Amino acid sequence: MADDLDDVTDDETAESSGAQIAVHWREEETYPPPASFTAQANASDPAIREQFTEDKFPDSFTAYADLLTWFKRWDTVLDTANAPFWKWFVGGELNASYNCVDRHLATHPNKAALIWVPEPEGEAHQAITYRELYVRVNEFAAVLKDLGLKAGDRITFHMPMVPELPVAMLAAARLGIIHSQVFAGFSGTAAGHRIADSGSTVLVTMDSYYRSGDLLDHKVKADEAVEAAAKEGQQVDKVLVFRRYPGKYSAATPMVEGRDVFVDDLLAAHKGEIVEPVALQATDPLFLMYTSGTTGRPKGCQHSIGGYLSYVAGTSKYYQDIHPDDTYWCMADIGWITGHSYIVYGPLALGTTSVLYEGTPNYPDAARPWRIATRLGVNIFHTSPTAIRMLRKVGPDEPAKYPIHFKHMTTVGEPIEPEVWRWYYNSIGKREAAIVDTWWQTETGGFLGSTLPGIDAMKPGSCGPAALGILPTILDEDGNEVPAGSGKAGNIVIRNPWPGVFQTIWGQPERFVSTYYAKYNKDPKSTDWHDWPYFAGDGAVQAADGYFRILGRVDDVINVAGHRLGTKELESAALTVNEVAEAAAVPVIDDIRGRVVEMYIALKPGYEATPEVENKVKTAIETDIGKIARPKNIWIVPDMPKTRSGKIMRRVIAATSNFTDTGDITTLANPEVVDKIRHQVQSAKVAKGEVPRELSETELHEIEHFGSE
Ligand code: 6R9
User: Fold this and answer.
1) Which of 228, 399, 522, 585 is surrounded by the fewest CB atoms within 10 Å?
2) pLDDT tens for residues 499-544?
């Protein structure tokens, strides 16, 4: 156990910068893409890279834009005049709904656009053809139009994984209404904050949905959301409620007279109505996707119509290798960016069949995904390391029992342990599939780092080289390049703009510049893109072969099961409990969810540490954020380790929770508290059997550098 306090590392760089550490990363063996895959791949000739070299930028990306149908072609590929607020395909006009729906009617109206699989196995799946999708999107667009919504207005969705969600997104996109889908697992309060931030007057929700065998009352969250939004001064006029079973209300929470309306009732008045897709500017916003950052206020990442749609279409083609006849299943939730880009917009822009599953992967057992894939003939499969770890734990031998044959598989959202990768490759992929480990972010719209599946060798634990046209590099804290193969880690940046990059943070343009561009910019007035490297907020190391290994966040964000949770959001939720004086959230390595949250609490004078206080903190977090954020443990400690300026040193408590070396604590104002906390927490964890396995170098790096102090 690495808990010897005297064993302080002598590597100064690790102590000072937090971004640079000399280590000898173990190299993994590589796996060539299967020849059968390459033979059919959309990208099979390495020469494709030559079309995307730096000297051809930015025109190279017109190859992606050309995958779309434009009402009017652009005049300028990239306008940098208002750097770093990049404008792609300026002067171009298009409509995302038209591109994902209408244009496929000429070639394959009766092919399934979506296949929806309800969680209860007794309920049949539903195939929605492109023609049927067209009808539904138009009818819902008519409903939205009738409510007076128009281009540029915002609308919030708090929808589960049902086909009504992509229908609603495409209906909004048809009119240019900016949609903001909030993950259904988030609490009503969290949805309310996002409604207020975006200034939405309409909330679209559903009465109920299935999750792990229970039909959840989801409508209750709409009431909480409207109330939370009102507290921030945002009035919601209408709540549109889809019914899980049309004609039958399946929630216990009553409808609110005058405000809440059943969508199936509204649709009845618009049967067969057609709403022409509005010709919108390429630079107009398509949607907002909220994500967490260093402050308590979530960031509404604003994505454009032309740039974003081009980028997800292009990357779906070359990295997901989507062909028109594929049956593609991404198990992510549409409430996250992965679902927007690689369940809805990318696959539908290419006219393929995209599978949508309502429930949890292991319900009613760990073979459910394989039954779905067998039944539907899925040949492209896309999921997260957390799902892979879980399926491996509860059903390692299940995939072999089913005749599943994936040509291609994806992993996304968090680093994948090489051992887990190998199970994915051998057991799920049966050594026949090309795997891509795609590194990217809510902000980036689409993939930034990945192998080209028909061309590049796979390397477990590394996302691979840069995606086509993307120019990443690793910089140290002073902006010096960290060379590939040096064995040094640093901050990964993207030197150039790309069409999928978000346009701004909704309502917070200064935060957009300061968080993502200020760090390495030397001339704030420059309109030359070379002066504005994009700071991704991830630590990374680049091997001599050019492959990147992503080490995780360098900011105060905890990646739980692939979902970003801001420590400040967690802490402010805990601080709403009256007894709590101070709170600090840290990540703990978890064998299934990658990371889980542990919360440290210091109480106000005069209060006792009791299970009631713990429960209050738990409830506060579930109410403010949602169950996904529920801490694994809450430790009520006598005091927090602090710097002399009074800042909580999160890396010290993170080390305590993970049984790793607490590192240098000489700069603490109260070093004596470290031992006390360690004894309290670690003996409780030993008693509960929660001693973690030995951490990998990647994991150690993250824990040692957690928090900015
Ligand atoms: C798409 C998505 C982004 C953060 C990102 C990084 C981590 C994502 C990864 C990965 C290692 C991968 N991340 N993909 N880490 N390997 N293949 O996940 O977006 O929810 O915004 O999270 O997730 O830390 O910065 P988002």
Assistant:
1) 522
2) 999 999 999 999 999 999 999 999 999 999 999 999 999 999 999 9
